[in-house]
Amino acid sequence: MTSPQVAARAGAAAPAARTSRRASRRSWAGWWFIGPFMAVFAVVFLAPIAYSIYLSVFRNQLIGGTAFVGLDNYARALGDPQFWSALGRVSLFLAVQVPVMLMIALVVALALDSGRLYGKSFFRISIFLPYAVPAVVATLMWGFMYGTRFGLVGNINQAFGLNLPSPLSSELVLASIGNIVTWEFIGYNMLIFYSALTVIPKSLYEAAEIDGAGQLRVIAAIKLPAIRGAIVVANIFSVIGSFQLFNEPSILKSLSPNTISTYFTPNLYAFSLSFSGQQYNYSATVAIIMGLITMAIAYAVQVRGMRKER
Amino acid sequence: MSVQTAARPSSSSAGTSSQPKIRTPRLRFPRAARSRRSRRSLALTLLMGLVLLYSLAPLFWLLVNATKTQDGLLNSFGLWFDGDFALWDNIARTATYDGGIFLRWFANTVLYVVLGAGGATFLAVLGGYALAKFDFPGRKAVFAVVIGAVAIPGTALAVPTFLMFSQMGLTNTPWAVIIPSLISPFGLYLMWTFATEAIPTEIMESARIDGASEARTFFQVCLPLLTPGIVTVLLFTMVATWNNYFLPLIMLKNPDWYPLTLGLNAWNAQAGTAGGEAIFNLVITGSLLTILPLIAAFLLLQRYWQSGLSAGSVKE
């Protein structure tokens, strides 16, 4: 096999490289296999997206039912301070949480790959386990630990006579959510990086060894460039995840109703608009704007990541 | 934390050890044949131990606190066991509370996973196989559309999907949860890259020359080769469906159809409602019972899904 492609490494360059290795006949036979996926995909992805766009150009009025309003909903969102505050909050979250999480995941993956760890497979599976924990359970668990009633912070304060601030206070709650998300996804990202590292041809390490390169040099000159595709993919997933932040704040809200508003994140805002406020049209608009921003940033990350490769 | 700080202990210990210098260059590398023990680094292991502690401590907290009574939760130190060991009692109460609704939620979750994750895996395997092994008109468009759609936020889809499903009379039924679970773009992507590596095109060619139909080629020749990839995709779609919260939250009003995630959150929120009984011990025990099946699946099947994830790793 000539091309060591793994899920995380393939990135955007994969489709072109693969064409030559496929059966050369071009036929419709493939549609028998992709057809079922695309049929369901059209129902649960494409139709709702189209309907969402349709909803966003109407407004439900108290008198006269729905009326076509063109881009009015979009104009309203762009002038909506609650929307901007939500967007600012997830942007701050993204800027801090994602680098911290990916950096730890990368270090763990490199450590696992270095072969210098005692009990390597125990580390690998244990650090991955939080990924199997539902966001609901993770948030309830951390929420209880953060809490002052039977939480660890309360315990520590009591035991040492300290007065640590509550992680659920309005200053700290975003960082506390960041901690939950980091806890959930370090292992997942570690696995993406690690599986990319395992397919690097060993001959590259041998060549580096002959040239007298040390461990750090091997990491900088061979390992990191080789897994760039995986790093880009992990970044894109994380950007998408941050902008879609919903579960953790919405569940934490029941433990800390005063510090998490209904517009804490854009997704929470869109949710509150439709399911508490019945403002389906405006909610669809907010969601579409977030979709566009997410796609633009994911695209920018990909272009930047791939450009460096040359 | 930076790459340098983590890597430094390992590189310095390599420098002080004279052993590598004696060996031939070929043998000095990770996974090479030379003695592994001497290359292990205690400092690096301890450093990684911090990440391990961070990952496991909350799970330990959950285990410890599932053994406590409601009273013990409030009055004992969080990271250690209380005097009375109430785990079995908590499990029994979790299973029977409110007419055994927890067991109903458990059964619902299993139903959603079997149909949702099972169906999603089936569709992803077929689709990934098509993308990897066939050149068909519209192939590039399929790729672009699927990747683009992943970036759409959940709510952008949730609101219109909810409205569509409610017009079709599907909301508040299991179908509202199962149908959207059938699509896993990540599963399709994994399967695509896996099938590319795992199925030699020559095998397909020879099956065709022998007169096998496309269906027969797929089921009898290719499917066995795809097993590790299928297990991997199944595990990831299982996690996604088992842990799903947002979709059922929107689609379901009737607690009889709740999955575990929604049920646990409802129990937790109950303490905040007027006259609601605080049952945090049941929330915690229920949480533990919710994560155990998935953790068991990951541990039991780890050989398969790890090889499925690093599809090309066995080859040099």
Question: What does this protein structure show overall?
Answer:
The complex is a heterodimer of chains A (310) and B (316). Chain A is mainly alpha-helical and 310 residues long. Chain A contains 15 helices and two strands. In chain A, a hairpin with a 3-residue loop joins strand 1 and strand 2. Chain B starts with a helix and ends in a 7-residue tail after the last helix. Chain B has helices spanning 3-16, 19-22, 42-65, 70-75, 87-133, 139-150, 154-167, 175-181, 185-198, 201-209, 214-225, 227-242, 246-251, 260-270, 280-300, 302-309. Chain B contains 16 helices and no strands. At the A-B interface, helix 2, helix 3, helix 5, helix 6 and helix 7 of A face helix 1, helix 3, helix 5, helix 6 and helix 7 of B.
- Rg value of chain B: 25 Å
Q: Widest sheet of chain A: strand order? A: 1-2
- Estimate the mean pLDDT confidence of chain A: 84
Structural class of chain A: mainly alpha
Secondary-structure blueprint:
The complex is a heterodimer of chains A (310) and B (316).
Chain A: H1 7-10, H2 14-19, H3 30-56, E1 58-61, E2 65-68, H4 72-78, H5 81-113, H6 120-128, H7 135-146, H8 152-160, H9 173-197, H10 202-210, H11 215-226, H12 228-243, H13 247-255, H14 266-275, H15 280-307
Antiparallel strand pairs in A: 1-2
Helix pairs in contact in A: 3-15, 5-9, 5-12, 6-9, 7-9, 7-13, 12-15, 14-15
Chain B: H1 3-16, H2 19-22, H3 42-65, H4 70-75, H5 87-133, H6 139-150, H7 154-167, H8 175-181, H9 185-198, H10 201-209, H11 214-225, H12 227-242, H13 246-251, H14 260-270, H15 280-300, H16 302-309
Helix pairs in contact in B: 5-8, 5-9, 5-12, 5-15, 9-12, 10-11, 12-16, 14-15
